[in-house]
Specification:
The complex is a heterodimer of chains A (554) and B (353). By secondary structure, chain A is an all-alpha fold. Chain A is built from 27 helices and no strands. Chain A is globular and about 75 Å long. The two termini of chain A are 30 Å apart. The two termini of chain B are 41 Å apart. The chains are: A mainly alpha (554), B alpha+beta (353).
């Protein structure tokens, strides 16, 4: 290992583990870590464990996680099977729509639900006119679990679909020839072979459940349903003073649940290899004809799309163009562009929009550059250093953005060389880059894996040093992969809302964190306008991706 | 002054937990072509990669010309890029984002050769290899044979003294391959290079190489000229690997010097002992298919056995005889009806192992 590679790996480890270490240390203190008067102890943990709100939050988080697993795993698996294996009508245009819940912030989707199917939402009012009352309560725990579950279907879909795609149909055809009917084939061959993917995505959804923040913030607020992340967020209000040690203790509880999950995913992935089927060039997939069930399946998929995408997105877009909404309001009279004018006139909001774009375009590009350096530092190496990097890269997956933002706030507040940068986008950019490190590294390593080792080796033998191989061969070969990663990171950074919450201040506003803070103030007009702008930004990204054939998933 | 261009001493390579090479030594003289031959998994490609510096040996030493490039005991390990070798990969490994010219020029650029000289030297080597006007193409616009020659040009342009070839012909179709091995041999001789060439095809090894090194499970089974390996195999493995054989299981009846009498079910044949065997020991008699002859009169080492079938191969007929339950195969120029035949198994070509 050259010193440069080791330096990159060590720097990555420091940037990832320092803020988390700070959280851990703080959780065992009884006062903020920067004060002189402080003592080690378990006071913080004692306090939150005795707080009934914490217990309720934990249980709610557990309900949401389990509910999400129960809803999204079967639905996601079914959706993947329908999309990949059958002749479901309209597969080509359903595919990009499926990804909307992945790329549109849950905050926005939940505003949309409030506007559309909340107590005075336009769908609710319409239903009330038809049947006399609204037969659902959007703010109940059941609705929260249902919406969380439905909006995580795409996560399961992505993993299962890619597993199904890599399954060549000849293994199924072999079973058919051996005498198994189509149902038997699905039950004994196809399903068991994608089981690792289903299990993996199940664990993923389960720990994403413990990280749920925006959804619970918007939908849980009206009836006071807290989850762990919103409990943490509200701790400050609860005690009146910033109680760093309590926040850190809650953070450690969340991390304590998610870290084992992330580790178990790794174990699952390692075991998944025995199911790998070769993807030869000849492996062709013949779609299974659904016959009369075709249209039933189409209706089910369509219903899911309407419920998860059409209703919330149309709701939030609709709300952005009206002054107010409720019973007896007529759209023609309520139509307005004032909401957008307000955004453009308030400097902090306008700055938020500009910052979001800057962070996505320039910050995203810089992040991809960093990811590429990190990727190259462990490329084709397998030793202690690369294992350290492996764990470093994996760790941020277990850290919800809200906590990472908090940790980075502290780092930027009290680490002297960084203090001058606290009110700049650098603080946000660093936090975003760490939070999305695992995702970004997966994008990069997918590209790197496609470079044949002999292309690099032949350059070595020809006389190129390892650095020259990187510059002349490897990087030029993955340049399109890097551009595609930039686009993906752009979309993810546009969507991100929770990481910026604690870092929000004059100069570091972004649309996502502004929405969280405006939600507390109830400024639904402005939020809707910001949501609309955010949807436009993400759509621009998706549009470019679709236009240039960038794969939105693997 | 020595004319050894490449020497490998007691090389051990372990990949992961598996020992791949277990102590291999070889020497390549100036202008000599050495073929590394062996079944898959025998370690021949690993040996080539270790010479190039692409695998780190656990033990041993490698010298190129006067320079020690690897010596485990002395802690010497010259990185691949400093060994100044030519290497042609099985897949050719042409860089897809560079034109043919840029591919070939790369090694010169790295050696800081002036741009003018790069242009003339690349043009020269492309012309010599019959790629004259393809400089501006990208690799994917070339045929397999052209790609192979670009890969060669790329490793020859900076004039290495030793060139390593990993199955250089395996991606060509059969007809092209037979022409290419003669062409390649002539090219290496014309340039006065030393070459090590990995192949799993014994015919290719014999046609191209001055020396053949047959590897088996990480050790050298036998090394020598193609004639030695084909004509005087030291072991049953070498005999079986180098050509098409008949194998006759039997028992040694008597021994006199290097001659011995092998007996089986209803037959007794004289043969040459290739490994020491005493009377009464079990042994295998091996004879090449082409050494079996049909004769008119009985004599020593002539058996009267039934011909079961004649199989048409195009260039010859293959006869299948029945020798006490074992099938004995031989070649002839015409179709023969089944029936009893006199078959000679010449004693000087029957090897006993």
């Amino acid at each position: 290992m050259s010193p440069a590679r080791i330096a990159v790996i060590l720097l990555t480890a420091v940037v990832v583990f320092l803020p988390i270490g700070l959280l851990l240390w703080q959780s065992f203190l009884d006062a903020p870590f920067f004060q002189l008067q402080k003592h080690f102890g378990l006071d913080a943990y004692r306090f939150i464990f005795e707080d009934p709100d914490f217990k309720r939050s934990f249980l709610n988080s557990l309900y949401i996680s389990c509910g999400m697993g129960l809803i999204s795993v079967p639905l996601g698996g079914l959706l993947a099977f329908l999309m990949v294996r059958t002749d479901l009508p309209g597969r080509a245009w359903i595919e990009p729509l499926l990804l909307i819940p992945v790329f549109v912030s849950p905050m926005i989707l939940c505003f949309g639900y409030t506007v559309a199917v909340g107590p005075v939402g336009f769908v609710s009012l319409w239903v009330e006119k038809l049947v006399g009352s609204v037969p659902w309560n959007l703010y109940s725990m059941a609705s929260i679990v249902l919406i969380a579950g439905l909006s995580h279907v795409p996560h399961v879909y992505l993993y299962t679909a890619s597993a199904l795609r890599s399954l060549s149909s000849d293994v199924e055809e072999a079973a058919r020839v051996a005498g198994a009917g189509p149902l038997k084939v699905a039950a004994t061959i196809s399903l068991p072979m994608v089981m690792p993917a289903l299990l993996y995505s199940g664990v993923l959804v389960f720990f994403l459940g413990f990280q749920v923040f925006g959804l619970a913030l918007v939908l849980g607020d009206p009836e006071g349903h807290l989850v762990l992340a919103t409990y943490l967020y509200k701790l400050t209000n609860k005690l009146g003073v910033p109680s760093y040690h309590l926040m850190a203790a809650v953070a450690m509880c969340i991390v304590g649940i998610t870290v084992p999950m992330v580790l178990s995913q790794r174990f699952l992935l390692r075991n998944a290899h025995k199911y790998i089927t070769l993807k030869g060039k000849g492996s062709r997939q013949r779609p299974l004809p659904l016959g009369g069930w075709r249209w039933v399946a189409a209706v089910v998929v369509l219903a899911w799309l309407v419920l998860t995408v059409v209703i919330p997105v149309s709701g939030v877009i609709f709300r952005a163009f009206v002054t107010n909404w409720g019973e007896g309001v007529i759209f023609r009279e309520a139509f307005t562009l004032e909401n957008f004018k307000a955004v453009f006139e308030q400097t902090n909001l306008m700055r938020g929009v500009v910052n979001t774009v800057l962070l996505g375009v320039i910050g995203g590009g810089l992040s991809v550059l960093c990811f590429a350096f990190i990727g190259l530092s462990s490329h084709r190496k397998n030793n202690g250093w690369t294992r350290l990097l492996d764990y470093t890269v994996m760790t941020p997956r277990a850290i919800p953005g809200l906590l990472a933002g908090l940790a980075f706030l502290w780092v930027f507040l009290f680490f002297p060389p960084l203090v001058p940068f606290r009110k700049t986008l650098l603080s946000l950019w660093l936090a975003y880059t760490v939070v999305w490190l695992a995702y970004g590294m997966r994008l990069i390593s997918t590209s790197l894996l496609q470079v044949g080792p002999e292309l690099e080796e032949s350059a070595r033998v020809t006389g190129a040093s390892p650095g020259q191989v990187n510059r002349h061969i490897t990087v030029p070969l993955i340049r399109y992969g890097l551009l595609a990663s930039w686009l993906m990171i752009f979309m993810i950074f546009e969507r991100e809302y929770s990481t910026g919450v604690y870092l929000l201040g004059p100069g570091t506003e972004v649309i996502g964190s502004l929405m969280v803070s405006l939600w507390g103030a109830g400024a639904i007009d402005i939020i809707s306008a910001l949501s609309f702008i955010n949807i436009l930004l993400v759509s621009a990204g998706m549009g470019i991706a679709l236009r240039y054939g960038v794969k939105l998933h693997d | 002054m020595t004319d050894i261009e490449l020497s490998v001493q007691d090389l051990h390579v372990t990949l992961g937990q598996n020992p791949i090479l277990k102590g291999v030594s070889l020497e390549v003289k100036r202008g000599e072509i050495v073929a590394l031959l062996g079944p898959s998994g025998s370690g021949k490609t690993t040996l080539l990669r270790a010479i190039a510096g692409l695998e780190l040996p656990a033990q041993g030493a490698i010298r190129i010309g006067e320079q020690t490039v690897f010596d485990q005991a002395a802690g010497v390990d010259v990185p691949a890029e400093k060994r100044s070798l030519g290497f042609v990969f099985q897949s050719y490994a042409l860089w897809p984002h560079r034109t043919v010219f840029q591919n070939v020029a790369y090694g010169l650029k790295l050696r800081k050769v002036p741009a003018d000289e790069i242009r003339t030297r690349v043009a020269e080597v492309l012309r010599d290899l019959g790629l004259g006007d393809l400089g501006q193409r990208h690799p994917h616009q070339l045929s397999g044979g052209q790609q192979q020659r670009v890969a060669l040009a790329r490793s020859l342009v900076y004039k290495p003294r030793v060139i390593l070839l990993d199955e250089p012909l395996s991606n060509l179709d059969a007809k092209l391959r037979e022409e290419a091995r003669i062409w390649l041999r002539q090219l290496i001789i014309d340039l006065d290079l030393s070459a090590v060439c990995v192949t799993h095809d014994q015919a290719e090894a014999m046609a191209m190489a001055d020396q053949v090194v047959l590897l088996r499970e990480g050790l050298i089974e036998q090394a020598g000229t193609p004639q030695q390996l084909y004509g005087e195999p030291d072991s049953l493995f070498v005999a079986e690997f180098m050509g098409a054989n008949n194998a006759l299981a039997g028992r040694v009846a008597s021994v006199s010097g290097t001659q011995a009498q092998l007996e089986g079910e209803g037959w007794s044949l004289q043969g040459r002992l290739r490994t020491p065997r005493g009377a009464g020991e079990a042994a295998t008699g091996v004879i090449r298919l082409e050494k079996i002859r049909l004769v008119d009169a009985p004599g020593p080492n002539v058996l009267r056995i039934p011909l079961r079938a004649s199989v048409y191969l195009g260039h010859a007929w293959e006869y299948l005889f029945d020798l006490g339950g074992t099938t004995l195969r031989g070649y002839g120029s015409e179709a023969l009806p089944p029936g009893e035949r006199l078959v000679e198994i010449p004693a000087e070509h029957l090897w006993l192992f």
